[in-house]
Design brief:
- With 843 residues, the protein is mainly β.
- It has a single domain, classed as TonB-dependent receptor, beta-barrel domain (Maltoporin, Chain A, Beta Barrel), CATH 2.40.170.20.
- The chain has 2 helices and 55 strands.
- The strands form 13 sheets. The protein has a 22-stranded antiparallel beta barrel.
- The longest helix has 6 residues.
- It starts with a helix and ends with a strand.
């Protein structure tokens, strides 16, 4: 599809969590990492920061409205605050001549092949005896349409110009996660964007720019979890969300050596996710079946980021023997995040079933919203958990060229103020009997980070003839906390929960022993609490940081052909997370044994094993509800502390690339990268049962080119290969009654991504993380293009696109849970797909 993630997918040493084939992933963000690390990204549209949180894209922009897109992946200068990928998109502008473009592309299922039947293991295929299996054709696009029109021109020549674009995109694709009664149900997405830009030339040296874009997304059956399956649409979510950006900008040339720019803009979105049923039946998450059952959340997240930026560039020759390009700038950003839940789960209770089919834990939640689903619910006070981040930063750079040496020198200062404003809590009583009162919380500032970091880059012409160049970069990067740290620290948590071990064999007046459904009274000991009074911030909280170093040698081989080889080091340290320091790993002293049915998921076969885990003696934590300090009956309280956790990571990459510029009717670029990674895939362990750190690898090869064929036909092929991600087989144990202990596999660390950590986690690894690898993915795409001129006023561009021409199969994501569904795909690479793309330009 025409989006940011398709560009990232062809960028060297960028690894995607899923691969788009012919637009089948349009409208759903795809996770990505560069040189092994996948966080702290920055997404700019017209110079305005539109990053969602600290890594994602804030909305699905109109790709056809952009004149230029830039991607920076490593070794970036002092203008970039964080260590991740930076994306910059600049919109088209009108000019003195009226111009326009009509773009339309189309796919139907008749243009698509099939790649499941001969490749998917038979045990995962749908059959009369396997109603939960994957149906043939369930990864195919049923229909795809992308319509785009843009026009622009002068309001007053040489003085005032305008530009407008509108995009409307719709996809209907198969969904392997829909099984049983809803097998074959299509997964629909609709996106639409209006955008506009005006440019006013005040005089020869001064220009004013105004810009606006809105993005709307409609997805009626969004998945709460992409790694689980669904037998009813009631378990899915309805999304109808909007995002926006607007700005005003001034550019000025003060003299021949000095250029200045200043802008003010606002980015924001409203993002409701609402269960597709009003049933109050408690939610079930079944690890044995890899299924979600019953209603999920009714929630909304709103964001607003107001920002002012400015910079001045000054050129100076003949100083210190060379030429200088100085740049100084800074920005102020005021960010607010509102979050609220009417319910986090059906009936505000989540029942967790383990890999052995037995109940493990029950999570209860309290409402934190009075209304969701509307634009403005956050600012209007309906979303009750509010977090803020104020940012002030400045940078200075100097590109200093002297002889054969060019230095890129920089220094950056960032100030972050992490706080929560005045807000309130609703009264609520959990099914366990615990009550929280209505309360108010005063404005609280948790931490103020001030970081000064250097950046150094050099480029040296080794032989003095421009054919052999040594390039090196070194820099320190500080993390952006986003509003996430304030949300983690907020006593008025957006997701107010209390988690209990679940004893389904318990006998009580309201209990039904052994029915695998929670009744009040079956809750055991408390394993996690996210309520006011149980959450604090370490006063010595440090700002996470990253160190990056790169070395490349670039060599011109022949005229127009060059190659480069290099090494990249990236390290991260002092990452923040939420931890339970008063319930340490040393408290888990009681061993118990659990049967592991092995890879085949069948008991009584040769791969069966027994696994030993550890629990806390239940008598030591029998009365921890509402307790925040150790007592004889609550020796290990579940207080949550936002703190630094030692889940450091190191990523080392060797990279080789070759590039041939256009000549003799063709061009070619190709690159291969191999990365050695060491980190904590699920965050830092809070218990002896939780996964720890591992060594693992990733590698990729990408190539693209163009060929100018006869009759004005252009052929543009793309080849992509990336190794499948490492993974471990997972187990969700439950402690036997004879243990008289409470089990947990809690992890502290970032609570996002496919391997997110959680203090409510009961999932552990029973194999090394590097013991398995998902399917390698190989995709060959090609575009054939012909432009036909219609006199001097218009031209028609005809496209024919082919995607995954070899019709390769790969399971992009799979179930990691031990049992019959282990390794069952939850997302499958799209098959061979064709697309037609007529377009017309007026000039």
């Amino acid at each position: 599809s025409r989006d940011l993630w398709s560009l990232l997918a062809v960028t060297p040493s960028v690894t995607m969590s899923r691969i788009d084939v012919g637009g089948n992933r349009a409208g759903t963000q795809t996770g990505y990492s560069a040189y092994g690390y996948g966080g702290q990204n920055r997404v700019l549209v017209e110079g305005i920061n539109t990053t969602e949180g600290t890594s994602g894209a804030g909305f699905y922009v109109d790709y056809g409205s952009f004149e230029e897109v830039f991607l920076g992946t490593i070794g970036q200068g002092a203008e970039m605050p964080t260590p991740g990928v930076q994306s910059q998109m600049l919109g088209k502008s009108g000019g003195n001549k009226f111009q326009g473009e009509i773009y339309q592309d189309y796919e139907s299922n008749g243009m698509i092949s099939e790649n499941i039947e001969k490749n998917l293991p038979a045990k995962f295929l749908f059959s009369p005896t396997n109603s939960g299996g994957i149906r043939l054709h369930s990864n195919e696009t049923s229909k795809y349409r992308d319509s785009n029109i843009n026009v622009g021109g002068p309001i007053k020549k040489d003085k005032l110009w305008w530009y407008f674009s509108y995009r409307n995109q719709k996809t209907s694709v198969g969904q392997p996660n829909f099984i049983g009664p809803i097998s074959g149900t299509l997964f629909d997405t609709k996106l639409w964007n209006p955008s506009g830009k005006t440019t006013y030339q005040l005089n020869q040296n001064n220009k004013l720019i105004g810009y606006y874009q809105w993005g709307q997304k409609e997805q009626p059956n969004r998945l709460p979890s992409a790694t689980n399956n669904y037998t009813s649409l009631d378990a899915t979510l309805a999304q109808l969300s909007g995002s926006w950006i607007y700005k005003g900008e001034w550019n000025g040339t003060l003299n021949n050596n000095t250029y200045v720019e200043a802008r003010y803009g606002v980015f924001g979105y409203y993002f409701p996710l609402q269960a597709n049923t009003d049933s109050a039946a408690f939610q079930v998450v079944n690890a044995q079946l890899s299924q979600y059952l019953n209603a999920d959340q009714k929630e909304q997240t709103d964001r607003q980021r107001r920002q002012a930026t400015g910079a001045m560039t000054y050129f100076k020759d003949g100083w210190l023997g060379g030429s200088h390009n100085f740049k100084v700038g800074g920005e102020v950003m005021l960010e607010t995040g509102w979050v609220g839940y009417l319910q986090a789960y059906g009936g505000n209770v989540r029942q967790n079933i383990g890999s052995n089919g037995l109940p493990t834990s029950v999570i209860m939640s309290a409402p934190t919203a009075t209304q969701v689903g509307s634009l403005g619910d956050g600012p209007n006070g309906n979303l009750l958990s509010v977090a803020k981040l104020n940012t002030v930063d400045a940078f200075f750079t100097d590109q200093y060229s002297i002889g054969r040496l060019t230095l890129n020198l920089g220094v950056r200062w960032d100030h972050y103020d992490v706080f929560t404003p005045d807000q309130r809590q609703l009264a609520y009583t959990f099914p366990s009997g615990l009550s929280i009162p209505a309360a108010t919380f005063a404005e609280t500032h948790y931490t103020k980070w001030n970081g000064v970091v250097p950046r150094l880059g050099l480029s040296y012409d080794v032989m003095g003839n421009g054919k052999t160049v040594l390039k090196a970069n070194w820099g320190l990067y500080k993390f952006n906390p986003g509003v996430g740290v304030a949300q983690d620290a907020n006593p008025n948590q957006s997701l107010k929960t209390i988690t209990y071990a679940w004893t389904d064999t318990k006998v009580c007046p309201t209990c039904i022993p052994g029915d695998k459904l929670y009744q009040p009274g079956e809750e055991g000991n408390v394993t996690s609490t996210a309520l006011a009074g149980a959450i604090t911030v370490d006063p010595n909280l440090k700002q996470p940081s990253s160190t990056q170093a790169t070395t490349y040698v670039e060599q011109q081989i022949t005229e127009g052909v060059g190659a480069r080889v290099g090494f990249v080091y990236l390290g991260v340290s002092n990452q923040t997370g939420t931890f339970q320091p008063l319930r340490p790993a040393s408290g888990y002293t009681v061993p118990f044994v659990v049967a592991d049915v092995g890879d085949d998921g069948i008991s009584g076969t040769a791969d069966d094993a027994t696994r030993t885990f550890y629990g806390i003696p239940s008598a030591l934590i029998s009365a921890c509800t509402g307790v925040t300090a150790p007592t004889p009956t609550c020796l290990y309280p579940t207080n949550q502390v936002v703190q630094n956790v030692p889940n450091d990571g190191t990523y080392k990459t060797v990279e080789f690339a070759i590039n041939k510029r256009q000549s003799h009717n063709y061009s070619l670029s190709a690159g291969v990268g191999y990365t050695w990674q060491h980190d904590f895939p699920r965050g830092y362990p809070n218990t002896p049962n939780a996964p720890g750190d591992y060594d693992f690898t990733s590698y990729s090869f990408k190539a693209s080119g163009s060929y100018s064929a006869p009759w004005g036909i252009s052929v543009n092929p793309v080849f992509r290969f990336q190794a499948g991600a490492n993974y471990a087989r997972q187990l969700t144990p439950s402690a036997p009654t004879s243990c008289a202990c409470t089990y947990s596999a809690a992890n502290g660390g970032p609570a996002s991504g496919p391997n997110a950590s959680s203090l409510t986690n009961n999932v552990t690894y029973v194999t090394p993380y590097n013991g398995y690898r998902q399917d390698n993915i190989t995709v060959v795409d090609v575009r054939v293009e012909k432009t036909v001129k219609l006199g001097d006023v218009a031209k028609v561009r005809l496209f024919l696109d082919g995607f995954n021409l070899a019709n390769k199969y790969a399971a992009e994501t799979i179930s990691f849970s031990t049992g019959a569904a282990f390794q069952q795909p939850t997302a499958i690479l799209g098959p061979r797909t064709g697309r037609t793309r007529p377009g017309m330009s007026l000039a």
